[in-house]
Design brief:
It comes from Kribbella steppae. This is Sporulation and spore germination protein. The chain is of the alpha+beta class and about 190 residues long. The chain has one domain. Helix content is about 25%, strand content about 25%. Strands 3-4-5-6 form a four-stranded mixed sheet, with helices on one face. A two-stranded antiparallel ribbon has the order 1-2. The chain has a two-stranded antiparallel sheet with strand order 7-8. Strand 7 and strand 8 form a beta hairpin. The N terminus is likely disordered.
Length: about 190
């Protein structure tokens, strides 16, 4: 009998510890909300997107120079590509910075395999001097391989590998590295 009385007493205590039911929602006073749950923009404010700094390369007097750009933390590789195709800022242009990328060129990431990124080229690339072509390829390769997770870049057009000019003027379809274009960097 004592055991039954103990079990009943414990059950009553546990039922009494529950959250009471309500027929309607009850408002919460702002001062009752813990500070860690409060946000300056209120409960509907969206969290700010994380950003990261990357390095992109542009041209000054036929040499490649690196500039910092802020890109979204998610999709850093796409951010580098967008920064490259956007070109130098107005103030950079006023200081003689240009891009060797042809107007209207589009670069699309088609494969990421290990530390190698494959980029599909679309848009017009003909009619440019060998110097402009080498600088354009170097601009892309140095910018993409500046990411910690990328060591090599390959180029494709219409699903087939594209020969690229190395800094020494040789053509190759082999994966390209930063070392292939170091000689083009501004001292």
């Amino acid at each position: 009998m004592r055991v039954l009385a103990g079990v009943l007493a414990a059950a009553l205590v546990l039922v009494g510890c529950g959250v009471p039911l309500q027929d309607e929602p009850a408002p919460i006073e702002p001062q009752a909300i813990p500070s860690r749950l409060q946000s300056p923009g209120g409960p509907t404010a969206a969290p700010s997107a994380a950003r990261t700094t990357v390095q992109v390369n542009f041209v000054r007097k036929d040499r490649l120079v690196s500039f910092a750009r802020e890109v979204p933390g998610a999709g850093v590789l796409d951010g580098v590509i967008q920064a490259l195709t956007a070109g130098p800022t107005a103030s950079e242009q006023a200081n003689g910075i240009t891009s060797a990328l042809p107007p209207g060129i589009a670069l699309t990431v088609v494969v990421v395999q290990g530390t190698t990124v494959g980029l599909e080229l679309s848009g017009e690339t003909d009619g440019r001097s060998p110097t402009e072509n080498v600088l354009a390829v170097g601009q892309i390769v140095l910018s993409v391989t500046a990411l910690e997770t990328v060591d090599q870049v390959t180029f494709w057009r219409d699903g087939s590998p594209v020969e690229a000019l190395l800094a020494d003027g040789a053509l190759t379809t082999a994966p390209l590295t930063a070392a292939d274009y170091e000689a083009l960097r501004s001292p």
